[in-house]
Amino acid sequence: MSLIDDFLRRVPPHDSDAERSVIGALLIKPEFFDAVAEIIETDDFYHEANRTIWNGISALAAAKTSIDSVTLTNALGGKAALEQVGGAAYLFGAADIVPVPSMATHYAQIVREKSILRQLATLGGEIAAQAYEAPGHWSPDATEELIATAEYGIAQIASKQIRKPERDKAETLSQVLWNLEHGVENAVATGFASLDRSFGGFNIGQVTFIAARTSKGKTALASNIAINVAKAGIPTAYFTLEMTTDEMWLRALGSEAQIDMFSARRRGYRDGESARVHAAEKLLGEIPLEILYRPSMRPRDLRLECRRHGRELGGLKLVIIDYFNLMRGDRRERERWIEMQGVILALKEIAGELGIPLLVLSQLNRETSENEPPLLSNLRDTGAAEEHASNVLFLWQKPLKDSAPAYDEWEDLDVIIAKQRNGPAGLRVPMQFKKNWGCFRDA
Predict the structure, then answer these.
(1) DSSP secondary structure letter of residue 165
(2) For the whole model, what pTM was predicted?
(3) In what side-by-side order are the strands of the sheet with 439-442?
(4) Is the dihedral of CA 373, 379, 383, 388 positive or negative?
(5) Where are any strands of DSSP class E within 40-167?
(6) Which residues pair with 320 in a beta bridge?
(7) For the segment 139-148, what is each residue's pLDDT rounded down to a tens digit?
């Protein structure tokens, strides 16, 4: 007998006594419902009858109605419906078998753990079946897709296992007030003094967009921010969908060492440049910053990567995506704007679920005039970014009347705070950008 056949013949993990004990305990001690409901949900029950009874108890609790044999029978649909779940003997017998009603949450934890094991077993069977059905010819793409599916499934199951208890209102208010009185700021600062005075920073659960036309310094500003943040000891992950990891680290070296790396590769080092590059290499190697090349990344890939690298770095505090318009949706749609709308909603979900801020780079529509400051409606691919982004920053350079600055000169430009969740919008922050170094500084 094959392993697959053996797997299919097995009874999925469950504990019938624990399921009935949860129901019986709530019939005896209905005041434990809220605590139990924080642990399990309908799908955690293996037996259909127990699912139905649980739904009836949940309906009574939601209606703030007492939970007893009479009200539960009515909630299930009367005596005829009660017979479909085993009748009065099954329902009332559940109360009789409960060893200790006050241990309702303990029984619920058993039910949940068995549910998690069932989900793992189901996922394992599905992955095994897909592996056996893989194309006969060599296909690394198919293998990579299967691995991603497996990782995503595991992450989804794991997220159900870890349920953080909510702080009560008094505790939350006390913490907020303490932070205010002691000047505790949870937001991640950009590291640029002029920008930090006007911008509230990257807050947990928020998605911030930096947008500009092509070749206006989006990547340079984002990488400068990443380095500033990591220098402060804050773990940061930078996902690049366009440039390779080697190219991004080369840019980071040039920015930190303040060297034109394009020229240095052709003419060699000059005037102490070698020492500055090696000093930059040492610093970049020590700070908690990871740059990862992930072309065509999807939200589900991002979720997995954040969890993985968060474990390696001891918890991520800032994640940067360069850039939004190259992402793919978890589902392919005929209309690009629909797919990208799904992406931005998924990014908001990830930021909240993982408790991290996301900084996302984006292009502007080609129709955007260079003579006027950009508007939120100029964000490319979907109006959902304009609606759902917590903060939006634009890079904009006033049209130059004379000739453009040389490649190795500092250029004046504005960071426009077009939208800000925790502060005023419409502010302009003057900064300077030097293209050959890929470096920003306060004006």
Answers:
(1) P
(2) 0.68
(3) 289-293, 236-240, 318-322, 358-363, 207-212, 391-396, 410-419, 427-434, 439-442
(4) negative
(5) none
(6) 238, 359
(7) 666 777 788 7
